[in-house]
Amino acid sequence: MNIARYRPGPGMMVSAAFIGPGTVTACTLAGANFGFVLIWALAFATVTTIILQSIAVRVALVSRMGLAEAMMQTVASPPLRWLAALLLIAALALGNAAYEAGNISGALLGLEALNSDLSDNRTLTITAIAVLAGALILFSKPRWVERILIAMVLFMCASFLLTFFLTKPDMAAILGGFVPTIPEGGLLTAIALIGTTIVPYNLFLHAASVRERWKEESDLAEAQTDSAVSIGIGGLVSITILATAAASLFGSGREISSAVDMAEQLNPLFGSFASATLGAGLFAAGLTSAVTAPLATGYIVQEIFGKTGKDASRAPFQIGALLVILSGTFGALLNYKPVEIIFVAQIANGLLLPIIAFFLIKLANDSALLGRHVNGWKGNIAGAIILAVTSILGIRLIARAMGWWP
């Protein structure tokens, strides 16, 4: 990987997408409840994201197909192909619906931090956020809106980085957090940290964006560098959020149930403006992710059931995107605290991950699709480790819920 070739591209969009309300919430809860001991989960998730997104980039550039389209090509039997398509759509639609509910709730959480009176009009505010996200997807996607939202998210990230240095956290404790350990009651949080970083829909969105940005197989090195550097920066920010929460909130006994509670960790830098700063960042992060989740689902449905290209009908894309917005809106309207909805969405992502990882690693070894760009032995070992760790965490969560595993 040549860092000198780094030019911000679709990889930065992936980072901006996963540093959303889910990341801020999951990392804050992890730091506040368990200190620094779960940093390893974010480090593992960041490396895993780089590897999986790298495969998605390779498939898109070499095959010139979307990720969902490429996955279907690997299934020879038509009945099995339809079964795989339905399984893929069902899994991603359910995961994205949960994630969309978390995104909309995150935007709501941010608005409530800016104006507490909005909590009295929760239904109206959620509906307005959903309508805005739907309008941006279906009718326009102006570049200046996207840039403003991403700029606000990056401002929030910079705020955590500066606060991190102001709190002067224990560096020895931070380094100790890179040693894999699951504290008592920390399994769900570890899975949520992984689920908030390795967002399955980002793989499909990234592949579609890469195919539009770069046209030649010779651009693969530049695309891979963009992906690795951008996601590495995003992972560093996530670790910083956790460490800042651990340094500011761990041991305080305070329950984290609102953006105002989460904003307390920014007090060293912003003082009385901490809530407004975090609120604006959460709203931007929530709205940005509320657009990208249905967008990715639309691409998946289009690639499987429709045709791609300028003259293709957009009906499958629009139906897929709208279904995610509607189901996410319904989930956000349920009478649960926004922080709880966001956290559950991250757990759903963590459980979905092994399924998507299996498909990706299968693609990475398909010589008919990738030719000389198939996985080498190092890539396959990394893939096996990713599958093993994510599957064990998911199985343990299910077994614990069934009372089979403490």
Please give a structural write-up.
The chain is mostly helical. It is 77% helix and 0% strand. The protein contains 18 helices and no strands. Helix 9 (187-197) crosses helix 16 (338-364).
Please describe the topology of this protein:
Blueprint (H helix, E strand, L loop, with lengths): L9 H9 L2 H14 L4 H25 L3 H7 L4 H37 L7 H17 L4 H25 L3 H6 L10 H11 L2 H14 L6 H30 L9 H5 L3 H4 L3 H32 L9 H19 L4 H27 L2 H4 L6 H25 L5
Helix pairs in contact: 1-10, 1-11, 2-9, 2-11, 2-16, 3-9, 3-10, 3-11, 3-16, 4-14, 5-6, 5-14, 5-15, 5-16, 6-14, 6-15, 7-11, 7-14, 9-16, 10-14, 14-15, 16-18
Structural class: mainly alpha
Total strands = 0
- What's the quaternary structure here? single chain
Q: Helix-strand pattern, N to C?
A: HHHHHHHHHHHHHHHHHH
Low-confidence stretches: none
Q: Roughly what is the average pLDDT, rounded to an integer?
A: 78
User: How much helix is in the residues?
Assistant: over 70%
Note the overall shape: globular
Radius of gyration: 20 Å
Please describe the biggest sheet, giving its number of strands, its sense, and whether it closes into a barrel: none
Straight-line N-to-C gap: 42 Å
Number of helices: 18
Beta percentage is under 5%
